[in-house]
Amino acid sequence: MKKCLLAVLAHPDDESFGPGGALARYAAEGVDVHIAIATDGAAGSVAEGYEEARGKLAEVRARELQAAVAILGGTLHTLGYRDSGYINDPANQHPDAFINANEEEAIGRVVRLIRELRPQVVITHDETGGYFHPDHIFCHKVTVAAFHAAADPTQYPEVGPAPHQPQRLYYTAFPNTFVRLVVWMMRLRGQDPTRAGRNKDIDFTRLGLPPRKIHARIDYRRYWEVKRAASAQHASQGGGTGGSRGFLPVWVQRYVLAYDTFIRAIPPAPDGYRETDLFAGLAD
Length: 284
Ligand SMILES: [Zn+2]
Description:
The protein is an alpha/beta fold. 31% of the residues lie in helices and 15% in strands.
C-alpha cells in the first residue's frame, strides 16, 4: 500500500504555518503528500513592506504557495475559490468568496480529489478553524462532508473514477498550554491578548484545546528547518518572522515545540488518547 495523505486547508500559508512540519516529515518518509488549498488568499492583510502587493495579492500568494509546497515536498492542488477575509471583513460579502460558494459544488471538488488520489489519511481544520476564520470553518464543513460522500456511490456518481473511503480524518488543533503561556507573556508586556495578531482581531484567550483533546503529536524536529523555510516563502504574510512563537527563544521552538498536533475525528479517539503517527496501525 502506497501511503497517501491529503490535507485540505483554506489559505495559501495554512499548509506551512499549520501542519507544515508533519507534511514535510511524511513527504520525506516517502508518503504521497497532497496539499489542497481552497482559496487564493486575496483578502489577507499584507506584512510591512508588501503594501505594493495589495492589488495583485492573489498572484503573489500563488507564487509563495507554490514555492512553499515545493519545499515541503508535496503536490499542490487548488480549489480555486476567492478568499473571504476574517470576521466582519467586507471581503465576506463578495459573491465569489469561498464562504458564499455553493456548498454541494464545493464538496464535489473535494470528493473528486479524494476519489482520484485515494488517500488513507485526510487532514483539515477543526470546527473552530483554529481561530474562528470563516474560511477555515467552511473548509472544515466541506471536507468532512466530502470525506463521507467520497465513499458513497449514490453521491456525486459522475465525479472521479470510483468511490473511496479514506480511513482516517484528522483536524489540525493545538493544545492551549502554549497559548496560555503566550497570554501570560502578553499581559506581562502590557499587551492585550484579546486583540492580537496583525489585524488585532484574534482573541488569544479563546484559542487552543485542553491537552487531553489532542490525540496525535507528530514530531518534526528533524524537519524544523523545512517548515521554517516553507513558512518563510509566505513573505507577504510575515512568514519566517516566527508569529506568536517569536516570543520564545529559537532553541525552545526547535526542541520543545517542534510537534504538529491533531484531533483524530475518524475513527474517534477518547480524551487522553495519544498517537505519534497518523498512519500507525493502518494495513500495509
Ligand atoms: Zn488560513
